[in-house]
Design brief:
By secondary structure, the chain is mainly beta. Helices cover 14% and strands 46% of the residues. It has helices spanning 13-16, 79-88, and strands at 21-23, 33-40, 43-56, 59-66, 70-75, 89-94.
Length: 97
């Protein structure tokens, strides 16, 4: 999506995590980046990034790449989010718009 708009993103989630501007969950919209990882005593370690694909009734659906499963779509109201992604969610950022 970003290359369509001539935006080059780094190939590293940590490097992407400092681009653009922060957005809250409530402000998030299609195209915003969703970052996951852990908080440590020395700061935040970003290990994964997804992109908001859609948003409905306050729930997001993100698209992301998995080494074991390829391109995946996960909704924030699904069990995988509650059992896995929710614990790793850090923040969201808007690159353009």
């Amino acid at each position: 999506m970003y290359s369509f708009f001539n935006v080059d993103l780094p190939h590293n989630a940590q490097a992407m995590s400092v681009l653009g501007t922060p957005v809250s969950w409530g402000e998030s919209t299609k195209g915003d980046l969703v970052f996951f990882g852990s908080r440590t005593s020395s700061g935040v370690k970003v290990t994964h990034v997804g992109m908001v694909y859609s948003k409905e009734n306050g729930e997001i659906e993100m698209v992301h790449a998995s080494l074991s499963q390829g391109i995946k779509f996960d909704r924030s109201d699904a069990s995988v989010w509650k059992n896995y992604w929710g614990e790793k969610f850090l923040f969201m950022r808007r690159i353009f718009g």
